[in-house]
What we know:
Blueprint: H1 3-9, H2 21-47, H3 49-53, H4 55-71, H5 77-92
Amino acid sequence: xMTPAVWLTGTFEPLTWPLGRPGWAILGMAxxxxxxxxLFLYLVMYAGPVFASQTAYVVTLSGVLWGILIFGESHSxxxxxxxxxxxxxxxxxxPRTGARPG
Length: 102
């Protein structure tokens, strides 16, 4: 899907042997993405979709915290209120108890 955009912007990075740093970075990110997606599917299969959907909150919190720690970002009160609202909403989402229909 991204191939036309990459070619039009001139940012295509061909993977030629021996690999340079960009090539290893591309392969590393591909491997990490495959592993992460596989683990996510495993989580959905064994823990259920409600529990697995909570990974979105972990990703959001991690993004904010890494932004502060690595890039020295500072956030307004609105960001912190949004995070608190998300955490409250997360605490309200519970899996069903009892028998499943069907």
